What we know:
By secondary structure, this protein is of the alpha/beta class. Helix content is 36%, strand content 25%. It has helices spanning 52-60, 99-109, 114-127, 143-155, 173-190, 201-207, 238-260, and strands at 7-19, 25-37, 41-45, 67-72, 75-76, 84-87, 161-165, 193-198, 210-214, 219-226. The mean pLDDT is 93. The structure holds adenosine-5'-triphosphate (ATP) and magnesium ion (MG). Residues 18, 20, 26, 28, 46, 48-54, 199, 217 line the site of adenosine-5'-triphosphate.
Amino acid sequence: MNSSVPIKLKAEGIKKYFYTHEGQIVRAVENITLEVREGEFIALLGPSGCGKSTFLYMVAGFELSTEGELYLDGDPITGPSPNRGIVFQEYVLFPWRTVRKNIEFGLEIQGADKVSRAERSGELIGLVGLKGFEDAYPHTLSGGMQQRVAIARALAYDPSVLLMDEPFGALDAQTRRRLINDLVKIHEATHKTTMFVTHSVEEAIGLSDRIFLFSCRPSSIKEVIEVTIPRPRELTSDDFIELQRTILRSLNEEVEKIVIGPCPF
Ligand SMILES: Nc1ncnc2c1ncn2[C@@H]1O[C@H](COP(=O)(O)OP(=O)(O)OP(=O)(O)O)[C@@H](O)[C@H]1O
Ligand SMILES: [Mg+2]
């Protein structure tokens, strides 16, 4: 990416060890150093258990690093803040609130007035393709629609970055592809800097400007892959399939290390 674009997020030598009740150390993340520029869409791809969620939760401020520093807009990350919008795999909407009220929740907490809340939620409902469902309750929506609400809710207070942890992981393949295409459009419309955790090479290529491929645990960044295929990306195109094969080979090397034995450290 153009180096004149400001750096949004910076990780320097991030290490995260967990200490279990039995006194054992789990070395989750060993050394993550990266920079994300304003407006970039980044995928964090890696084998299960390599520390992708752990890293994302440190960016969210839910976990503190054991070593290393994280910066957002030049300021150290020291805890959670509304300047990071988050979407999880599980549907975590408020069941007693309508679509509109779910989206407006954060704005209510911030004390935004009714008119500006309605304006903002209306905009976002249009952006995520939920016009006509403003007054529906979550249990009446499909999983894909619920995740659209979750995306709109995360964008509502115009966070500095959008953090997504396998948001489409529980959806069927067709719905997932549709949401990938729509997320590409949402990103084109908002230019929101996004960090998206996934196991799926297809998702990572479909969405990202760059893919950070994590090694097996304790993780570092094995490769940074720039995806230059023009959007919208057709998953049956030769370029897509070729890149998918290359990344899968590299990812599988890491997955196999887990099956054979612990990652050397
Ligand atoms: N609170 C915790 N206490 C102890 N160990 C933890 C804790 N949270 C995560 N871990 C361990 O850290 C490692 C990384 O976990 P993490 O959930 O970040 O992996 P992941 O890459 O997101 O995996 P997946 O793709 O399966 O979601 C795992 O070995 C996990 O068991
Ligand atoms: Mg995870």
